[in-house]
Each structure stands twice: as C-alpha cells, then as structure tokens.
Amino acid sequence: MKLSFCLIAFNEAATLRANLDHLYPHAHEIIVCEGSIRLLRDVLGVGPRSNDGTLEILADYPDRQRKLRVIQRAWRDKDEMSAAYAELVTGDLLWHVDADEFYDDEVFAAVPREFEDPSLQALEMPMRIFWKSPRWILAERDGNDLWCRVPRALRVSPGMSVSHVPVRRIIRGVRENTGIRPPCDPRILNWHYGWNDDARVRMKMQIYSRRDAKTTRANWIENVWDRWTPDSPDHAFPAGVHPATAWQLWPRPFRGEHPRCVRALLPDLVASNSVASDSVASDSVASDSVASDSVASDSVA
Questions:
Q1: Nearest to residue 152, comparing CAs of 201, 189, 205?
Q2: What are phi and psi of 285, to 5 degrees?
Q3: Quick one: 257 exposed, middle or buried, by C-beta within 10 A (0-12, 13-18, 19+)?
Q4: pLDDT digits (tens, 9 = 90+) for 138-181
Q5: pTM of the entire structure?
Q6: 85 touches 73 (CB < 8 A)
Q7: How far is 101 from 15, CA to CA, in rounded Å?
Q8: Are 216 and 244 in contact (CB under 8 A)?
Q9: Residue 8 and residue 48 in contact, taking contact as beta carbons nearer than 8 Å
C-alpha cells in the first residue's frame, strides 16, 4: 500500500526536519499544509506564515525523489487544512502526522497489514503522551500510559475529505464513525511529544481555552502547568494534570527507550521544557543519546 503522510504545520522547526527524515523513506508522498489558523491570528496576533525556521526547512529539504508537496496560506482552521491535503492524496492510506509525533520504524510496514481487513476504514492508534520531558509520561492512576487512542491512518476513497477534530473520513459530506478500530499488532504506537515545550504549551492553551472552553480546566497554566514539578505528589492535583476535564491523568517516570528516530532530539526536548529540576530526565536522556542501535520499541495533541 502507498502511504501518503499529511502534516499541518505552523512554527514546527523544533521537530519538523527530524519528522520529514523519519517519514521520507516510507512515503509515497508527504503533503504539508503550512500556515496559521484564524484563531491564532485573532488571539495571538501572529502572521499567516511560520517565523521560526519552518519555512526554511521546507524550502531547503533535499526532496530527491520529489515526494514532498507544500501548500502555504492563511487558514480558517485545522479542518480546512485537513480537507486541503485530502484533496491532493494519491496513495492508498492517508496518514495524519503531527510534527511532534513519531513511530518505530517497524510500524510503517505493520499499519498496511492492518488494512488487509476490508472492513477497516480508520486505524485508531494508541498514543504515548510525554509530559514536560521525555522521561515523564501521562498515565492513569493505575499506571496505564496507553489511555489515549486517536485515528491516524485512513483508507483513501474517491472524493473523500478529512476532518481534524476528530480525525475522521468524510464521505459525501458525512463524517464516518464506523469501520474504526485499534490495531491488532501491539507494536503500533504513536509517540507524542507535544507537551514538552513550554512556549508551545502556553500558545496551545490560549487556543484550547477559547475553542474548547467547556471541556478545558480554567486557569490551567497557573494552577497546574506552572506548579507541577517532579517532586509533586498526586494528591496535589486530585483531578490530574491534563487540561481536558474528561481525563484524570498524572505524570509517571518513563523508563523505556524512545524510537530510534527521536533519540537525537531528546536533549533538545528536555532543554526546551519548563522542568528545571528534572535530573532523572537529564541523566536518562544523556544515556539514551549514546545508546546502542537496539530499539525496544485532537484536542489531546
């Protein structure tokens, strides 16, 4: 099956180049919709284009096999961006990828095998969501860190469009909620690092607090993000630390190994977060970065 990877990007320089390098060998095509959405422009006063080096990464990327296509403009919202890349897809599977999420290499062969099931229309991938550092992961009270599943790979059909929140196929104007299941192969996991950068989290919360005001905890930055440290006990945050009211989650130390493609980024992911005293993360990341080549391994983002 031909894999069409689709990204929406605005100020993603921290992880974008690594992600393109990660996807490129497995891609039939990579489609990037770049630019700000209206809510960002209205709330934060940002311009229509990225200003952190994202544009230069896209312009200078060594696209030797002509797989990369970039669409740039000011957008209404992420649904419009998703619909734009869906119009251009020529592969068999449309795979939505956030710029700050990654996969183990073996997943790129495992996902098409899931779609040998003709009833499968959208694969709901379990996510590991990291918190302030690659050494802290969000988990339920019992330690389950695969509490979140989000559709990522969609079977392509003629005339299909795509929504972003949630990620769904849209067939003849109707959002499809059938034919969706998690993978049978337990190796298929999404590794998500969207809560590692302090500045980006603060920007996202300005959006969520307006777009999803009814389901987002009030004053979350002040009450949770700025207060939590690696020494914080769970009882200091009885409702958990996630900003969505639907989830009660707490940070837990992560002792495993990250995907090979992320390891070079780990020191930067630690340096860019707001945990000043996370010595466990710093020590572990340092050892990961020199580890051997062996790998063990919508509103959420």
A1: 189
A2: -65, -40
A3: middle
A4: 999 999 999 999 999 999 999 999 999 899 999 999 999 999 99
A5: 0.89
A6: no
A7: 9
A8: yes
A9: no
